[in-house]
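Table S2 (text version). Query chain:
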Amino acid sequence: MATLWKEEYKVGIDKIDEQHRQLFDKMEQLLEIAKSGNRNSNQKKCMEIIDFLVDYTVFHFDTEEALQRDRKYISYAQHIKIHTDFKNTVQAYKELLSTDFSAKTLKSFIGTMLAWLVNHVCVCDRKILKNIPLQSMESFADTESFIENVAHKLLTEMYNIPIRGVKSCIYKGNVDGAVIVRTVAEGKNKHLFLYGMSDKLAEILYNKISGMSLPHLDFLDEIEKSALMEIGNIITTYAMGAIEESHRNGVQFKSDLYVHEYNETDYNIINSVILEITTDYGKMEILYSRLK
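Corresponding structure-token output:
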């Protein structure tokens, strides 16, 4: 199995880089157990690792936040909110696994943790040293320019995948893609995001998250599924912040993953924007609709 930690993840602050390495090393141990097929016999070891991750995440976040206060980091308050939300996520998984230790839940935890860690280390934490805002409240001339910016944020800024072309499409009841992630964000209002991607693009994104290869799409396990769905949560969090400042707090996300085919039956999509994004690894279609 490939080593999860990569030198390219370094943010340039030795203490922070070492703590990140510790988190990735523990995730690698957990992943090895999950993939070994001996989860039940290793349940005690798994829970010890998860206990460490819960405690060490709190310790690590305290270290980062102290550093940000010393440096008067411009997005300090927003960074704390991100930390708080994720500490709650890790704690919720710990409680769930303590009462129902299952392969599905364990793998879901690993996929979610991996996707979140890579994004937070490579995108958010690198901005601390240069005092760059996590995200600016940009003004968009229309919804299409907003969605194009979301695509750029996801593909180019987060994962270094250049965009070769963009065109608008008419929504006909479905979104194309070998993998489709649906994320519904609900706070004051409800918003629907669909991310449809080619099999190659899904494979590349998963590899960039985990350093591992994505298996045949018909045989995805909970690690792969939860990691791909977490991509939807991550980019939708950014998108919601750009839509409306007040949505940065109190927003609930629910993501689902579909393979090969997706037709919307749960929500009545009336007004929507859909863009087709071309990359070197195939296309991504992104739909945005305000549901209410």
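Notes on Table S2: The longest strand covers residues 282-290. Helices lie at 14-36, 43-71, 76-99, 103-129, 143-158, 199-210, 222-243.
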